[in-house]
Amino acid sequence: RPTVAWFRRDLRLADNPALVAAVEEAREARGGVVPLFILDPRLERASGAPRAAHLARSVAALSEATGGRLVVRRGAPQDVLAGVVRDVGATSVHVAASFEPFGARRDAAVEAALAETGARLVRTGSPYAVAPGRVLNRAGEPFQVFTPFRDAWLAHGWRAPVARPREIPWADVPPDRTRDGLPEVPVTDADLPAAGERAARDRWHRFLREHLRGYAAERERPDRPGTSRASVALKWGELHPRTLLADLHAAVTDDRTLADDAVRFRTELAWREFHADVLHHHPGAASRSLRQILPEDAWATGAAERDALAAWTAGRTGYPLVDAGMRQLLGEGWVHNRVRMVVASFLVKDLHVRWQRGAEHFMAHLVDGDVPQNQLNWQWVAGTGRDAAPYFRIFNPVKQGKDFDPDGDYVRRWVPELRGIPGTAVHEPWLVGDALPGGYPERVVDHAVERKVALDDFARGRAS
Ligand code: FAD
């Protein structure tokens, strides 16, 4: 009898415990493994073109890695799976567990549909080094704050990566009955990274060789290629965080002078695990603030909100670092973390637009767009999250530009109107010459004024 390996956001063959479980069961049952990917129309509608394009290319790479045997079906997973299981005569479907609200609900529905056919849904592993919900404090409760979570997460530890099964007995499934063909790659202008497990591994190894040294300092510089860009591969499971953690450990064992950089990188991965854990315990945080800190009337509404969003999404706020970031989002489907924080802060605290609107725009354009990471980072910036930046710490977009893009190269790369302004002066184009360079907009708001409005709103919220 064959078993089914249902790939979702774990589009890889290496370090994939669910695939190993499927292979072991198939061997015992003298059957093959049916590799399956389901295009769920609900998810297709929710993801923007860059993410859908990356997914389509990554599924194509996975198909190639299975020797073209990947079965791709479109439809509601519970219906597709019940049909596939019946067609091929499988008694189990292997997956990595899903913890996000949508995935957890979907899997419960799948489990119920499979039960009617007599088949089981077998969960092995998850997209995290430690599954959400496992790291608890001494009282057996979830952590509220990041640093103690990180320490307990480190103390908990994780298993070593599992090797890719040497030979995978892929089942040959008749094409006509079970295939809808590979997903189409939607049209997008974004300049996206190469997709698939091999490309992700190559990028990661290049990062280890060329940029791990110095990461702790360089990671703050949007003008330099100092970060791993692994977020896309982690989002789609082309790489597993366990692999990255093991490689970091090996790098430091070889060369102790990399220790600080590796610790910093591990801390960033711990944020990813913390956000997944928070969302697991508070599924409502995907759309609602975990804490209400501002009065209802603090938010822009109607035309004011529309105008603010129009300037922000187009990268035409008149603040160079903000505009560069918003244009990088459209240009690459990825934005440097420092700049994500600055543009998010600007939307919430200078333009007084609710974080949910910004999160929605990010999700439509980010190639690494991921509900726990996106929504909880937005809540962190907005000051509404579990362990969030205090609301009164408001990013000054000009100072952030001078501190983290000191030569102005990042701004000039993304805002061509400002290319004629050399050096750090590019962060304050209104101080250069009599008029702004052709086509570059006036500032939509005065940061000093809006900062005060935000702080007053915050004080009113605390008093009420
Ligand atoms: P690196 O510096 O190389 O970091 C290594 C890995 O650590 C990343 O790949 C990522 O998995 C993790 N990491 C780093 N910073 C964070 C962080 N702040 N929170 C959680 N994990 C982190 N990340 C996403 O993966 N998807 C999102 O949808 C997303 N939305 C964001 C929205 C906002 C408003 C902000 C401020 C941050 C968001 N982030 C998101 C986090 C972070 O910006 C990206 O993970 C990071 O920029 C990815 O680039 P990198 O892989 O080169 O990072």
Give an overview in words.
By secondary structure, the protein is mainly alpha-helical. The chain folds into 3 domains: about 5-125, Rossmann fold (3-Layer(aba) Sandwich), CATH 3.40.50; about 195-280, Serine Threonine Protein Phosphatase 5, Tetratricopeptide repeat (Alpha Horseshoe), CATH 1.25.40.80; about 295-464, Orthogonal Bundle (DNA Cyclobutane Dipyrimidine Photolyase, subunit A, domain 3). The chain is about 50% helix and about 5% strand. It contains 20 helices and 5 strands. The model has no long low-confidence stretch (mean pLDDT about 95). Its cofactor is FAD. GO terms for molecular function: deoxyribodipyrimidine photo-lyase activity; DNA binding; FAD binding. This is Deoxyribodipyrimidine photo-lyase type I. Belongs to the DNA photolyase family.
* CATH overall fold name of the largest domain: DNA Cyclobutane Dipyrimidine Photolyase, subunit A, domain 3
How many β-strand runs?
A: 5
User: What's the multimeric state?
Assistant: single chain
CATH top level assignment of the largest domain: Mainly Alpha
Query: N-to-C terminal Cα separation, in Å?
Result: 64 Å
Please tell me the total number of domains: 3
Low-confidence stretches: none
- Main sheet properties: 5 strands, parallel
- Tell me the β content: 5-15%
User: Could you tell me the mean pLDDT?
Assistant: 95
Strand order of the largest sheet: 3-2-1-4-5
Supply the CATH architecture of the largest domain: Orthogonal Bundle
Net shape: globular
Ligand roster? flavin-adenine dinucleotide
Number of helices: 20
Write out the CATH superfamily name of the largest domain.
Answer: DNA Cyclobutane Dipyrimidine Photolyase, subunit A, domain 3
Secondary-structure-based class equals mainly alpha
Pattern of helices and strands:
EHEHHEHEHEHHHHHHHHHHHHHHH
Organism: Luteimicrobium subarcticum
Cofactor: FAD
GO biological process, one term: nucleobase-containing compound metabolic process
GO molecular function: deoxyribodipyrimidine photo-lyase activity; DNA binding; FAD binding
